[in-house]
Amino acid sequence: MRRAKDVLRLIHSYLSGRIHTPALSGCHYFITFIIHISRRTWVYILKNKNEALIKFKDWKLMVEIETGKRVKCLRSDNGGDYISKEFSQYLVSEAIKRELTLPRNLQQTGVSERMNRILIESVRAMLSDSVLAKKFWAELVTTTAYIRN
Fold first, then answer.
1. Counting CB atoms within 10 angstroms of each CB, which of 52, 87, 103, 121 has the fewest?
2. Percentage of residues of the chain with pLDDT beyond 70
3. Pairing of the two strands 11-15 and 73-76
4. Which residues are in the Integrase catalytic domain (predicted)?
């Protein structure tokens, strides 16, 4: 794997599996966008997995304005929401290269898998050390990302 040289050259993304306990907002999923070079992470909470493209578009616009750079490559797993026709067409229209990772290949998925593990373990620790109900997971996962950044 090559290392990214400019800030938005390579973005890792992870879309969680369904979280059994709905968040306060009724959401069951979260998606992360991670800048390869800095490991800066954004977390968005989703009601449905099909919101992934909407969140990616929102995130992309924000970081491109903030950095003055363009997203060049998106690395994700082969999850259906990343390889949908609509998502594929959007990436092509924006000249964003897609890198799909091989299942269970830590060399390719290590960044997103590790961040997901950090987020989930942090949420579990905060819930076990507090009196908060499990439905606060969304607030805790976004807080964890904020603190790590």
1. 103
2. 92
3. parallel
4. 1-149
Which of 36, 38, 42, 41 has the alpha carbon at shortest distance from 10? 36
Q: Residue 106 forms beta bridges with which residues?
A: none
pLDDT in tens, 43-79: 999 999 999 999 999 999 999 999 999 999 999 988 7
Is residue 96 a part of any domain in this protein? yes
Chain centroid to Cα 48, Å, comes to 14
C-alpha 49/C-alpha 58 separation (Å) is 15
Residue 52's alpha-carbon distances to 14, 79, 89, 127, in angstroms, are 10, 11, 14, 26
Note down the domain range covering 122: 11-148
How far is the C-alpha of 79 from the C-alpha of 52, rounded, in Å? 11
For residue 33, is it within any domain?
Answer: yes
Percent of residues, the chain, with pLDDT higher than 90 = 77
